[in-house]
Design brief:
mainly alpha, MetI-like fold, flat, ABC transporter permease, transmembrane helix, membrane, dipeptide transmembrane transporter activity, MetI-like
Length: 316
């Protein structure tokens, strides 16, 4: 007769069940909000037809798209489409909305991944350098530079990069996704913002660890400060940073809209922006569902990683 599952297995199963429930609730909330706000903006018929179209033509098109049905029926159809994965066809492009979203996802993932990786890596290097040197001047310079960057919106910072590196120097392309060089300016825009946030978190965490008894004891025993920093302080300090990084990476997948518009990057953000302006509701709903699912999946993966790294969390 098989024995009872160990508490650790039960904890894992409960964790997965909670995450699944959160994913369902998140997607349902996103779809509901998108439906309500979309219908509140009006029907898309007038935007899809030429300017010389008559009111009868507009009403006929709206009726063919199902907007003459009761709102409750439209909402239930949306939920059925959510369950079956059929969000319908784009009103303007006449292609599967989900297919169009999936076509744009790789470009957005590429942009978000490199921005996240470079921003986090630069923050780790800068924080470790500050701790190793103990330089207050370096910390002040980095702090001031970070404050200045955070005070500049991504939209304006992106335009500054285009003006300097594309217009004045002609060194880098500013539009499209034609080569690896096309990644530099949009990734720099996003990564610098990521860098500032991660640096502040990691520097504060490392400074807190530096005052712990185990650090003073290790140094008093003759261990080099660099060894203690890399082998003991950093693993403890990185845990809260990873938690925030998970939230941020999930948000990046849907938060690159401004940068994608500025650089004409053919990603999900630009597709959603165009769809919202054209009231192309199938694309909007499919895109938002993907972003919501990506956010939950990424955060779940990061939570599992944190539980692996931090034994205190795993035992809780």
């Amino acid at each position: 007769m098989p024995g009872r599952p160990s508490p650790s297995v039960i904890d894992v199963l409960l964790f997965i069940a909670r995450r699944l429930a959160l994913a369902v609730a998140t997607v349902l909330a996103v779809v509901t909000i998108a439906f309500v706000l979309g219908r509140a903006t009006g029907e898309p018929g007038a935007l899809l037809l030429p300017d010389n179209a008559t009111q009868a033509d507009v009403q006929a098109l709206n009726s063919s798209l199902g907007f003459d049905r009761p709102l409750l029926v439209q909402y239930l159809d949306t939920l059925v489409g959510l369950v079956t994965g059929d969000f319908g066809d784009s009103y303007r492009l006449r292609e599967s909305a989900l297919g169009l979203v999936l076509q744009r996802v790789p470009a957005t993932i590429e942009l978000a991944f490199w921005a996240f990786l470079i921003g986090l890596a630069l923050a780790v290097v800068a924080a470790l350098t500050i701790q190793l040197t103990g330089s207050r001047v370096l910390r002040a310079i980095v702090g001031w530079a970070g404050a200045i960057r955070q005070s500049v919106p991504d939209f304006f910072f992106a335009l500054l990069l285009v003006l300097v590196f594309s217009v004045l120097l002609g060194a880098l392309p500013s539009l499209g996704r034609t080569s690896y060089a096309s990644l530099v300016l949009p990734v720099a825009t996003l990564a610098t913002g990521q860098f500032v946030m991660y640096l502040r978190l990691l520097d504060a965490a490392l400074s807190e660890q530096a005052g712990q008894d185990y650090v003073r004891t290790a140094i008093a025993q003759g261990q080099r400060r660099s060894t203690v920093l890399f082998t003991r302080m950093l693993p403890n300090a990185i845990v809260p940073v990873l938690g925030m990084a998970g939230l941020n990476l999930g948000g990046l997948l849907g938060g690159t809209v401004v940068v994608e518009v500025v650089f004409a990057w053919p990603g999900l953000g630009k597709l959603l922006t165009d769809a919202v302006s054209q009231r192309d509701f199938p694309i909007v709903q499919a895109g938002l569902v993907f972003v919501a699912l990506a956010f939950v999946i990424v955060n779940t993966a990061v939570d599992v990683l944190v539980r692996r790294i931090d034994t205190r969390t795993a035992a809780a």
